[in-house]
Every structure is written in C-alpha cells, then in structure tokens.
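S.,

Sequence below, as promised.
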Amino acid sequence: MWASYIDQLSRKPPLYMALGCVSLLLATYSFFDVNLNFDQRTVGAALLHGIDESQRIRVYILVICGVIALLLALFLKLRAQYKYLASEEKEATHGAALVFILLANMVLYLYQGSSIFLRASAALLFLLIVGYVFKWLGTKGFYSSFGWALLSLIFQGLLIASAIAGLHVPFGGVYFSLAAALLATLIWLTRIKENGSEYWQPLLLSHALVPLMFAPLAVIAANEIHQALGVQSSYSASALTIWLVLFTGLALATLTRLFRDSARFIDMHHAEVGARLEQLLVSRYLPILLASSVAFSEYTGATPGSVALLKHLDFFHAGESIVPVQQIMQFRSMPYIDFFPTHGLFDVLPQLLYQFMHQGPYIESILWGEGYGLGWLPRVLSVLAMYWLLTLFLGPRVAFLVLMFLPTYHLLHPYYVILLLPLLALKLGSGVKGSWLVLWILLLLVFLWRIDFGITALTGCLFMLGGWAWSERSAAAISDAVVALLVVFGISAITLIALSAAAGKSPIYLAQQFLAYVQLQTPLGARPQFARSLDVAAVLQYLLLPLAGALVAAYFLATSLRRCHPDKRLLVLAYLSAASLVISIRALTRHSHYDGVFNPFFFGLLIALTPGVVFAISKTTNALIFIVVCLGTYMYFPVSTSVYQHILYRSTLEQQYPYPAGTGFTTLTTGMPVKDRLPDIDTSAEGLSRFLREYLKDDETFYDFSNSPLLYALAGKKLPSFTMETFYHTSEKVQKSMIDDLSKQYEADTLPIVLFGQYPVSSAWNGIDGVHKEVRSYRIAEFIYAHYSPCARIGHHEIWLARNRFNGTDCAAELQATLAENTHQPVSNIYPVEPYPQKFNLRKLPHIWANFDTQVDHIDCSTGARVTHTPTSAATTYQLRLPEGQDSSTSGYLYLEILAMRNTRATLRYTDGNSFEFDIIGKDKPQAYLIRVSSQYAWHQGTVTKMRLAADEPIQLMCAVVAPGD
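The prediction came back faster than expected:
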C-alpha cells in the first residue's frame, strides 16, 4: 500500500511545482542574504560575515533544481506528449547527409573565409559525384556499402602516398586526378558479371584492402621506431624502410587470412555477402579510417599545442603535466601513494607510453599528447568515443561524415570525452551481470583520471541509473549493481592498503590527504568574480545553456516516473545533462566568463541530439537538425578570448578536420633529426637545472616554493612531499602534513635547498590567481623563514639554503665555491639575493586564515599584547608601536578593530616597505580585521617595533593587539 501511495504521489505535478517554487525562493534568499561584492572582501570581513565564493554555487544549484522541478511538473501535466516518443528507424540517408554537410561547409567558407572549408567542400562534392557514379555504374549486387569503403580508402591511399613522397596535396588538383585514377582502377577490379555469379568479389577485395586502413598508423609507428632505434642503439634504418616492412607484414597477414577464408566467402549467398559487407563497414572500416585519419593529421600537422608550454618554459603548467611521469619512471613512485598528481592521471598515460618506447628526456613525453585532448594519441581515443556516441543517434555513416567534415569540437571537445567512458559499459536490462562490474571499474578509472571528472561521472550515472531503476523496478538488476559496486570498492580498498603498506604509509593517512584535497577544490580555485557584465556570453553560460540541461533532465525524470521505459538514447542524454550541470559549476569558480572563457560543456550537444529522441522524426531529419545546430553554434557561440581558447574550449580548425594541414612534425622521408625532437625550446633554465643536478647529492632534493614544479623533471629530483605544488598547500591539514615531510628531510640533511620565488618579484607566478604564495601557504612560508636563509639567485629563481648547512653572510660566494669544488670547473651566473620588500594584497585572499586557522576564533581586543596607536590630525593614518620585548620570530597575528563610515582601502606598512593592503568595510559599528604578519620574512628578523596604518578615508582605530597564531 505504501509503495503504491508513494508511486502515485511521485507523479503529482503540484508536488514538483511546490518543490520548484521553494528552491527558487531559497535561491533568491541566499542571493540577497549575503554580500556578493567579492572585490571588497577582506580577511576580517570573511571572518566576521562568513562570505564565501561557494555561496554562488549554492544559488546555482538551487536555481537548477527549482527549474527542473517546475519543468517536471509541466511534463507530468502534459501526458499526451508521450505518444510522440520516437521509435527506432532505419539509418539516415548518407547522400542527404553529404549534401547537408557540403552546404554547411560552404556557409562556413562564406562566413569565415577559411580555405579549409573550401577544401572540405571540394572533397564532399567529389564524394557526392562519385557516389552517383557508383549508383549509375553498379549492376545488380554492387553494394553501396562497399562503395563507401572504397571511397574512404581513397582518402587514405592518397594521404599515405603524399607522406611517402614527402608531399602534402590534400584536396588539390593533383589529389582529385589521383583519386579519379584510383577510383577507375577499383571499379574495374570490382566489376560484376551480369549473371551475378561473383557476388563474393567485393567481399574478398574488402578484406584484401584492410592493410590500407592501417597504413597511416604504420607511418606513425615507422617514425617512432626509427626515432627509438636512433636514440637507444647504433642500429639505424630509414623510416621508409621500416614502414615498408610493417606494411608488408600487415599485407601478408591479411592475405593469409584471406586465402584461409576465401572458400567460405565463395559459398556465401549474395544476401549474406551484403550483410558481411555492411558489418565490415560499420564495425571496422569507418571507425578505423576515422581514427587513423585523425592520428595522421595530428601527427603530421602542426606541432602539438601542448609543446607551447615548453617553448616558453611554463614551469607551472608543464610541471603539472610532466613531473608525474618523471616521478614514476625515475623513482618508481606510485601516484596517489607516494605523491598526489595534480590532475590525477590526466596527463600521464600518453606520456608514459612515450617513455616506455623512447626513454628520452622527460620533457619530450608531451609530444604524444596530454590530458587536455591535445596530441595524436588522445585525439584518436577521443574521436572513437565520439563516433560511438554519434552513431547511436545519427547512424555510422552520418557520424563518420560529421566527424570528418564538420567542426564539432565545440559541442564535444576531446577534453571532456573521458566522461563518456562509463556509457560504453551500459547494457541496462540485458541481464549481463558483468556489465555492472565494467561500469564501476570505468567510473573508478575516471576518478583516477581526474577527481572532478570522477565526481561528475558518478553524479551522471546515479541520476541515469536512478531514473532507470524507478522505471524498470528490477530488484535483481539493482541487486547486481550494488553487489558489483561492493566488489569493485572492496578490491580497490585492498589494493590501496597493499600498495600503501609496501610504501610504508598509512592508508588512512592517504585517504585523509585525498579528502583534504577534494574539500579544497572550491575555495582554492574560486575567483573573486565570475562575470564582468550581463552580456550575451554570460546569459548563454549561466542561464540559457543550463536550461537545455534542465529540460532534458526534467523530461527524463517525467518519462521514468511515468514508467515509459526510457530507451538507451534517452539514458545517454540524461547522463550528459546531469554531467553538464555538475561540471558547469566550474564556470562559477574558475576559468569562467570573467576570464574571457566561454564553455558550452555538453549543453550544445544536448540541443543537437534531443529532438530525434523526443519526437518521432526520421533519421535524415534528425541528421539535418544536428548539422544545423552544429553549424549555428559554431557560428554564433561566443569565441573565448583567453589563453585557453585553443587548448581547452575551442580548437583551431586545423585540429578539427582530420587531414594534414601543415608541413609536418615528421614524415617518412623528411623527419626530425634523431635526438632533436623539440627544436626552439627555451633553454633559459638549463643553468638552474644544472646547478640542482650538480650541487645536490643523489639522495638529496629541493623544495619548490616558487610554483615551478617542472624543475623536478629538469633536474631529475624526487618530490619531497605528497602534494606537488604550492598552489595546493592550503588549509591547516595539508600544510601541517607538508611541514612534517619537510621537517624530516631537513633533520636528515637531505633537503638543503628551497626555491623561494621567481624574479621579478612582481611576477604572476609568485601569486597564482593573484594570491601570494606566502599568504596562501602561510605556515610553510614561516617554516622556511625559520629553517632557511636567502642565499643566491640563478636565472629567474631565488635560492634559499638550509641554516643547518650554511648560515653565513656571503652565502652566494660560499655556494659558488662549494659547487666549483664539487664539479672541478668554474661556475657562473650565481648572484647574491637582492633585498626586496614583500607587499601582499589581501583583497583576493580565499579566506585561508579566517577559515582554517583554529586560533583566530579566540582573538579579540582582550587577548594578546596591546599595540599603542596614535592617529594623525586627518584620522586617515595611525602610527602603531609594538609592545617592548615582543617576540616577532614566531607566528602571529595583528588584530584590528576599525570603525569607518564609508568603504575604503587601507595599507599597513613597516620595515623598509613591507606592507599588507586590504579593504575596510563602511558600517556604523567597528569591524574586525586580522592580518597574519608572520607570513612576511621581515617579521621573523626580530626587528619590527612600529608600523603605519594608512587609509584613503577617515577611520577610527578602536584597538590593536598582537596575538599568537599557533
């Protein structure tokens, strides 16, 4: 009875109407209840009022939930609309799709003027004409599927011919002349007698041409083998020779298989031959041709965009990408056990494969690609996942054409394709228990790939499976899913315990580190603002596109509540909608419209694919809708103006169209010289990395406090801590853990060097996202002040030396002498540190002190040591004198209570220009402000006796005290 009552209640539109209204009211209250003017937030304001960027996330989630509930009520009310549910129909006509895509490319050429659209139009026109020629020439039994295979192979044959000859002639006059000649030859070879006795000939020839499909991949393999042989051995063979050997071996293997099966082919009935040709086309030719085309394009086209990280030595981002691979290969360190890779395994896999084959410099690893979907290997895997997804909605032929000849990365960028991984394992309702195991394993792999992607994928799966479970009511299937989850979780936990025990670490400690990192994601990456103005891009990013996700989510829920048994395509759309809504939260905190970044996530894809699932339209009409939406979004979606435009959100056309567009990274006859794969790379850090290699012993390493993790790979040194970057050393728990690691190595005298910062001091790398590293990682900074001394400068980096090793007055000279003695050669480019004041801007502080230091709750005017303060006549400046005997060598805060009638800006200065700048909130009662003065090195010098507080507007300093921070 209760189950029936709950079932009936769940279908009541008024219930969801009320839930939606309540959610929207809560969102409105949350928005107006807090001060969202993040530019004027200071430490004191954060401490007093609890202002947090995550508030905007709460508002966003409440709004989305409210909209979904209201739409769900609407869909439940309009029950009659369910009769328009689409049914499975035959695949779209590929001839019509050719015409649609041809017109789309012509529109894009007229719109943008890029010749790449004109070349694509010429190729499509050629395919269309040849298709009609096939139809006109073909007698009874000449299958159109085989014609498609031949046309696709023509592309590959000519591209490989151009690679062998060192030419690049795609879609020019030479190309079409060769294509026509090759086509005539193939038609002659496949001619069929009128009596129809040789239907098996196309099938035999299809198998015989299999090696041609893999020829582009053989080009890549030949070049890589050539490079590996040239680096690792004295044996040398030309890339062309290696390619011929590979291609010949593949051809012989195929012919062996062909002769073995030829008798069976001949005995086949013509209908069976046609079915085999169709299966061969869909399952082998089209995806392999597509993948090999993309691989060949990426490999022979422009140098991978990720190499740009190295050309100017971006020590921060290139370090994120390369250092995990270096730690694994050089020290056999285990990710998540010995160290925490910043992006998970996001950057590791293609680079590890490169290292296993070449064992070259770690900086070379990025040549095969990295996590942002750049490089030939990630793009190949991405396009195969895209092909699977689009095949489900558009059919294989149309999916092939779309991915070959339309710019689709703005709808489904390779960066996000990993989120499709769990969908590949779904066989809901099939009764296959193993599919649940595969699903949870793939979800675990996505978590290891990137934590935020794992959270996104898990949410999408739970939403999709929840709706399916309510609709199907299959207790057995739900039980199988839960059992499979427990099995995967149990095996994962046992593996973690075993690996951590082997590494001598506590699995509980590692789990705590992991959770501490996850909890920090939002406050750590949050920016003070997320939108500059309410323009078109902001409306699309935060209102209209999320509405598309909410519509799909509500429609799926309504279908499930009505027990309409959603088909596989609707389940996929439900997953994409939930995943997009979850990951779109990132646009509220980081890389957002405020930075000039526009990201449609999967919302545009939902708009393109949903009509064919909701309404009973033909596959051809569905393909037309997809092409029109794809064209429109490419033309009218905003183009990002930030540096991330070509890396993350919008790819260049040359990276989209899968045929060569450049003169080549390497070809069979004109490849890069062996051992010279990264020309024009900035070598300005060679002096510093050489110093680190020569000064440090094998068991010694250094600590990078300068946001330059790439130096670990360049110097070949081990990470000294679980977490790699200063950017993530936030919160009490993470910083104390980090200090424990540093302390042990300091006491063992295996951590003699700290790279404290970069020159010039104003460099943005000293303060990621505008927050100084000493402010964000205040405890670590104070540990360095207490145990290390400024010593020397090499290149752009400032070196501090351990006090238990050297604490003299002329550290740079001593360091240079020691290094010369060790290397027995003169050493240059080591200079004394230039004294400079530390000037911290606290207006962008993400509440580090206010939210994480447990001591600050007890600080007020009655605690600590009183500071004498004297105002000027204008009441805009106060002279502060610290109590006599004040110990400034330990951590401590300056606590202020200030009354101001208007918002103003204040600066606290002391000792040769050191300063803290912050905002004062104008209110009718005093406000509390807290400054951790010990985060500056001058405080630890023990010479601070007075300070000066200056504001732009009159203020009244009610009290000032110095209080301990620990």
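Residues 270-300 form the longest helix (31 residues).

Coffee later?
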